[in-house]
């Protein structure tokens, strides 16, 4: 099935959210890659203040994922999605009209908080409405997000001559249009009843051992995915020398092209299998192994006299390998999170997973940067081995969970059931209020909660922040 046919086969609500992902990423990357340069050059802010502004946006997003997910569970995904898009429109509009540090900080906070609202909500809504085709829906989600991520910087560059304020107004207009479109076209779904308070929901999530085993095993996925903005970008610049900008562009073009051509095919291939664990383990191993190629090639191609294309090619191939690993793994991660959540807490579980992933991504990338500084080159072995070890250890952990039966991973062809992975009872709440019966946990294999925006997926939120800093530094 082609990407177009796959898209048309989904319900209108899912198609609307896929278009929302494309347009939203277009609007986001239309502005964010140029924000650091605007703050430094046009407003004359110090590098420290610029770093604070960018960091606040990231913190207000990843730090509030859990809040956004819980809001989607309790208020209904549609309302949270609409509010999130509207808040981001307001944040981008503030960038257009504000020239002082307080206004810029407020704009940054609003922009990040908006992502914390609609990212978990959109994913949970898609999981609900795509039913037993959730993996394929999330594959399309990745495709549409990557198209938007590629279009955004191109349009931003075209608008650069008009000035950053015009760019910000255009980005705000895109999110304003998305707000209206979802307000009018996105069907409302009644939020499931909750027998406990918000803190009871959080207690259930944070005491769900099987879910946290899954989260800890796979939070390295986003950390490795974000290296396309960080380690691979630095490697391409170092390998290309004076043509660093062109090499980085080739990196992103290759990644986007591979995802557009193969994401749906790869997902359908692995989705036909009865379980998800082996697919996710394979994807993580491929992601980790891809980091070995650039330093290995740099060791063999030591001469600067080697053609530039020969020096850059290993980095581009490694980025393609990383993209393949992400294409294998990510749709199934997004498919399984709602299965852990049951019928009431899909958004909260997504929020918890992305919060943990964001914290790990920032930590690992900081360590990787320190290893680059110590090694004197992004093409040195230590940062590559850190990333490779992360991928391989994650693959081993996922395989162990699969063998233990702790993954709610049965696919369309599954004939056996895993161990009970639903949320555990919370002391004092009673089993009926705290636990989700297995018969109520899914519809067609995917959780039927309305609690519901890739990265971003999807571009990872922490990856976006890293990308902002990298782009701002290069400009």
In words, what does this structure look like?
The protein has one domain (3-474): MFS general substrate transporter like domains (Growth Hormone, Chain: A, Up-down Bundle). The chain has 21 helices and no strands. It has helices at residues 3-8, 12-31, 35-42, 47-62, 65-75, 77-97, 101-130, 134-159, 164-185, 198-206, 209-218, 220-225, 231-240, 244-271, 277-290, 293-300, 308-341, 346-375, 381-404, 431-434, 461-474. Helix 6 (77-97) runs antiparallel to helix 7 (101-130), helix 11 (209-218) runs antiparallel to helix 19 (381-404) and helix 13 (231-240) packs across helix 14 (244-271). The protein is globular, with a radius of gyration of 21 Å.
Secondary structure elements and their pairing?
Elements: H1 3-8, H2 12-31, H3 35-42, H4 47-62, H5 65-75, H6 77-97, H7 101-130, H8 134-159, H9 164-185, H10 198-206, H11 209-218, H12 220-225, H13 231-240, H14 244-271, H15 277-290, H16 293-300, H17 308-341, H18 346-375, H19 381-404, H20 431-434, H21 461-474
CATH topology: Growth Hormone, Chain: A
Specify the biggest β-sheet: none
- The first-level CATH class is given as Mainly Alpha
The chain-level structural class is mainly alpha
Report the end-to-end length measured between terminal Cα atoms. 41 Å
Assign a percent range to the helix content: over 70%
Give the overall shape, derived from the CA principal axes: globular
Please trace the helix and strand order, writing H or E for each element: HHHHHHHHHHHHHHHHHHHHH
CATH architecture: Up-down Bundle
Percentage of residues in strands:
under 5%
Number of helices: 21
Q: What's the number of structural domains? A: 1
| CATH homologous superfamily descriptor | MFS general substrate transporter like domains
Low-confidence segments? 412-418, 426-475
Transmembrane segments: 12-32, 77-97, 103-126, 138-160, 166-188, 209-232, 244-266, 278-297, 309-328, 349-371, 383-401
InterPro entries: MFS, MFS_dom, MFS_trans_sf, MFS_Transporters
Main location: membrane
Protein name: MFS transporter
């Amino acid at each position: 099935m082609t990407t177009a046919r796959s898209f048309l086969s989904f319900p209108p609500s899912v198609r609307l959210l896929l278009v929302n992902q494309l347009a939203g990423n277009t609007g986001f990357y239309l502005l964010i890659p140029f924000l650091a340069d605007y703050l430094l050059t046009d407003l004359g802010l110090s590098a420290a203040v610029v770093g604070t502004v960018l960091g606040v946006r990231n913190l207000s997003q990843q730090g509030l994922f859990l809040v956004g997910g819980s809001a989607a569970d309790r208020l209904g995904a549609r309302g949270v999605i609409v509010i999130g898009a509207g808040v981001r429109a307001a944040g981008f509009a503030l960038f257009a009209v504000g020239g002082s540090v307080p206004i810029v900080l407020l704009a940054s906070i609003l922009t990040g908080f908006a992502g914390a609202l609609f990212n978990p909500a959109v994913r949970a809504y898609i999981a609900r409405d795509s039913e037993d085709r959730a993996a394929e829906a999330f594959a399309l989600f990745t495709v549409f997000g990557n198209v938007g991520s590629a279009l955004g910087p191109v349009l931003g560059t075209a608008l650069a001559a008009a000035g950053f304020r015009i760019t910000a107004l255009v980005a705000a207009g895109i999110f304003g249009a998305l707000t209206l479109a979802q307000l009018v076209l996105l069907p409302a779904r009644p939020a499931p009843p909750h027998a406990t308070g918000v803190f009871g929901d959080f207690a259930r999530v944070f005491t769900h051992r099987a879910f946290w085993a899954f989260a800890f095993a796979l939070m390295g996925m986003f950390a490795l995915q974000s290296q396309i903005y960080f380690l691979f970008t630095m490697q391409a610049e170092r390998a290309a020398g004076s043509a660093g900008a062109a090499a980085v562009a080739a990196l992103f073009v290759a990644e986007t092209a591979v995802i557009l051509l193969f994401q749906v095919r790869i997902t359908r291939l692995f989705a036909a299998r009865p379980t998800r664990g082996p697919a996710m383990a394979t994807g993580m191993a491929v992601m980790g192994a891809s980091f070995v190629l650039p330093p290995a090639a740099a060791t063999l191609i030591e001469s600067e006299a080697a053609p530039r294309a020969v020096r850059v090619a290993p980095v581009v191939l490694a980025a393609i390998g990383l993209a393949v690993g992400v294409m294998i793994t990510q749709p199934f991660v997004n498919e399984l999170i709602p299965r852990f959540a049951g019928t009431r807490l899909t958004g909260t579980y997504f929020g918890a997973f992305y919060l943990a992933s964001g914290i790990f991504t920032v930590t690992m990338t900081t360590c990787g940067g320190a290893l680059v500084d110590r090694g004197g080159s992004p093409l040195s072995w230590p940062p590559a081995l850190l990333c490779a070890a992360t991928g391989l250890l994650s693959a081993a952990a996922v395989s162990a969970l699969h063998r233990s039966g702790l993954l709610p991973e049965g696919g369309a062809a599954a004939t056996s059931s895993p161990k009970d992975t639903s949320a555990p009872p919370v002391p004092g709440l009673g089993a009926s209020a705290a636990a989700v019966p297995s018969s109520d946990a899914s519809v067609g294999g995917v959780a039927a909660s309305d609690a519901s925006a890739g990265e971003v997926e999807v571009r990872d939120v922490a990856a976006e922040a890293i990308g902002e800093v990298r782009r701002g530094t290069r400009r």
